[in-house]
Design brief:
By secondary structure, this protein is an alpha/beta fold. It has one domain (6-187): P-loop containing nucleotide triphosphate hydrolases (Rossmann fold), CATH 3.40.50.300. The protein contains 7 helices and 9 strands. The protein has helices at 17-27, 57-65, 85-93, 104-113, 127-137, 142-155, 171-187; strands spanning 6-10, 31-33, 36-38, 52-54, 69-76, 79-84, 97-102, 118-124, 164-167. A 5-stranded parallel β-sheet has the order 2-7-1-8-9, with helices on both faces. The longest helix has 17 residues, at 171-187. The two termini are 18 Å apart.
Amino acid sequence: MEIGKMIILSGPSGSGKTTISRYLLSKIPKLKFSVSCTTRTIRNYEKYGKDYYFISEDKFISKIKKYQFAEWEEVYPKLFYGTLKSEISNLWKKNKHVLFDVDVKGGLCLKKQYPNNSLSIFIMVHLEILKKRLFVRNYEELSKIKIRLNKAKIEYNYAKSFDIILPNINLIQTKKKAMKLVSDFIKN
């Protein structure tokens, strides 16, 4: 089995990871999304197996104990996210490159485990813009938005640990830059 490459997009909640991920997936046929597991509640626009595998906390913990995750994190209290090793290997078996849209610690964990075939990109957004985006989403209560903003401040400290810091000021330009970075990485 030929091992493919990994593109790791990380950044705070609301930084644009998902939008950029969808753009890259629509433009690069050999790039496939790694569906993560989560214990959070499904949102009305999401689909099981496409956006996430929504599982119970007990099932998630069972997978941790069985070493089934390449990375996992309790991102917020009692709210787990993780990438299954089987998800990565299944995509590589299909000769695909894997795209991750993960939290910052998860991204760094993947980078550490797969240093030779991964490109890690931190999506950077000014905190005030991030705040506006989280409020516009309008699917969380104020207390949860405040938790996300406080977490973002901490996550910015990890930006320099990524291969590339990609500012997301103008989304159209950011998508073009991401496309060039990823295309060049896959070709090498």
